[in-house]
Amino acid sequence: xxxxxxxxxxxxxxxxxxxxxxxxxxxxxxxxxxxxxxxxxxxxxxxxxxxxxxxxxxxxxxxxxxxxxxxxxxxxxxxxxxxxxxxxxxxxxxxxxxxxxxxxxxxxxxxxxxxxxxxxxxxxxxxxxxxxxxxxxxxxxxxxxxxxxxxxxxxxxxxxxxxxxxxxxxxxxxxxxxxxxxxxxxxxxxxxxxxxxxxxxxxxxxxxxxxxxxxxxxxxxxxxxxxxxxxxxxxxxxxxxxxxxxxxxxxxxxxxxxxxxxxxxxxxxxxxxxxxxxxxxxxxxxxxxxxxxxxxxxxxxxxxxxxxxxxxxxxxxxxxxxxx
Length: 324
What we know:
The chain is of the alpha/beta class.
């Protein structure tokens, strides 16, 4: 009998070995693999926990011929009030050829990095090249990660932050403004001000729209990230109807994306409103931005392909740096 030896990467080590720019590159691999079929991933299983306090999510996937694995996650929305991340869990990797267990990685850190990195990739591909202003809806972990990701792909000069409370937006601007050389971060009291930017990232826990299409400037690119069920959304129907919409996966979007399903039920959009998957844009199978005045939207739900490719990249770099 052989002994089992699995590499363990905690949150600090994941962050150390997986810089945001590298994670964005890993997301390009994940999204191409999703769209060309080389990464297999069924819809995730979501188990509501007794008492309504959260959910347990199981997300398996396989990226032939490299790795397969799963992300196991507990989603506890009340955690941030106690100083803990809402997402708790791990990503496990196996060798695709032999089935040998390879690694366990902190699931919260992988999720935070890959979610923002996917938005960074979408922004790199879909936003105007001259985009310099960023609107952030939300002041939590994903707002921080998205600020880093968007700065990797565009020369952002001004960030406008809107939160549920003015105090949270001011605190975000204060905490992150001092280290933002060449960039101004301001808290705004009106959501409309954050929406009137070249790039907008909506990373809230809202169940009803917090951003409206009427607030957007021509040529804006919007990343809708926070809502992840068929009955919740962050954007109103007008925003979605007037935009060219891209998704991480058609299968996921047509099953779980309330930002799209609610306008569809209302008749505001048709069944063919999705222009393409982000991977299809990368593969040249779907067109990207056509001009500097149209509005583009990337609806993010998150895919296990993203977790697997981020985890594999982190494990590879860990080993390159001499980790066991």
